[in-house]
Amino acid sequence: MRTKQAKKRVAIDVGGTFTDCLVLDEKGELTKFKAATTPRDPSDGFMDVLGKAARHYRLDLRGFLATVDILIHGTTLATNTLITGRGAKTGMITTRNFRDILEMRRGMKPVDTSLYNVFIPPNRPLVPRSRRLAARRPAWRVAPLEIPPNRENYAYLKAKRHRLGHLLNLD
Question: 165: left (phi > 0), else alpha (psi -120 to 50), else beta?
Answer without folding.
Answer: left
